[in-house]
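In this section we walk through a basic example: taking a raw amino acid sequence and producing a predicted 3D structure, encoded as discrete structure tokens. The instruction is simple. Fold the sequence below.
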Amino acid sequence: MRPIGFDILQYILLIWKCGSELILSPENIATVEEGRPIILTCRSNETSGIYSFFYIDTHGNRINYGKAGGAFLSCTSSTNQPNIECEFGSSWIFRLTITHPVNYQTVYCSGVQSSQELLTSTTIFVEGDATLSVIPSSNVIVNQTISLQCLFRSGQLGVLFNFPGRISCAVAFGSCARGCGNLLSIECPNNQTYTLNVTVLPSWQNATFSCEPPFGGLRSKITLNVTVPVTSVIISANQTSLDSGTTMYLTCQTSYCQPPATVTWYIANREISDHTILTYDTNQYFHSRTTSKLQYTAMPRDNGQNIYCFANNIKGESVVSDKITLGVRYISDVHIFPSGNLQAVVGTEKCWIHCYAEDANPKVTEYKWFKGTSSNLTALSYSQTLFFKTVEIQDSGQYTCNATNAAGTSTDTIQVIVQYTPMAAKIIEVVCQDTRAFILWTSSNIFKR
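The resulting token sequence is shown next.
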């Protein structure tokens, strides 16, 4: 048998007899799942001639699967694997069953009548299992560039990628450079490997992607776990200036992200996340927004300090809010100097008691002295220090000092005890009895008003 090169077959001139027809089905492309046989049917409307199935090997040789027809209506397979079945009726039908189809193999059916040859062909595509994988992994971050790689166990003419939202991308082998719409790029190093490079969108959380052979076959699916980083956290407060001991409420709200962000509160470098309430809401992509509401009770030490919050949903990465400077109004306990009770002697000159607040914001605006008990107070002075020019017996009593600023009033009290100065004792009589003596003496105070 003289070998026929594949390049020669490409240019065979088909000379048809008037009304002659040779049809091979499936036409042009015959797809079959891997591991399954394929049946090719060649039909001629002529009832004469010699017919054969053949293919061209890699060396350009014509390899026959079998022959049929002729004067003896033969139907013979050339090898053990393929099998030819023939029907010789009003039209001749030849069926070739290939037990182990070869991917990309072109099978020809020819009919020779009176030295004229009719030729038709189809190309076999074996649909191998597709395996879709994500490089570097299916755990991705929004705006990250990833590769969706579809691998086939046998070569394919192309691939069909399916995206969320019923979006498909059909890629033909040899035309990968054209890309697919707005997708980044497509790589086809061989007819078994198709790689689609894409940028992760926020809407792809829990979305399913798939790839499959272009002419139908087994589909491979994969789901992405998309992390959307928190990009901002906004702080707000119902007030920024308040009295010590009073309560205010602050709110920190994050951007939409996935997974939900955690929020941590600070004053200066001190964490204050104990009294918080967390709520969450989602957008159309099922991304979560965290709202943290902080109940804060003002303390004097926090005056002038910054309060702020951190938000994070990726280990090692976080965003920080603006800082709010707190203005805490307060007044510390008031003290009177000297401490304890003050004892004075009638007639003492330039005696004083002093009132002071150790710390206050804003500064103390008024000091006020009172004498008496809470039910009967008499205002004495508006100075910080209360002076006694000359101590008199009626100066005895309880004294109260009030220190006042915008935060309120602080109070302290002192007891002033005034005594007379006694004269030297005057002995009136001494009576001695054995080992005892009785002394009678008297004294009087010389202080006169």
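Looking at the output, two observations stand out. Residues 1-18 have pLDDT under 50 and may be disordered. The longest helix spans residues 6-9. In the next section we compare this with other chains.
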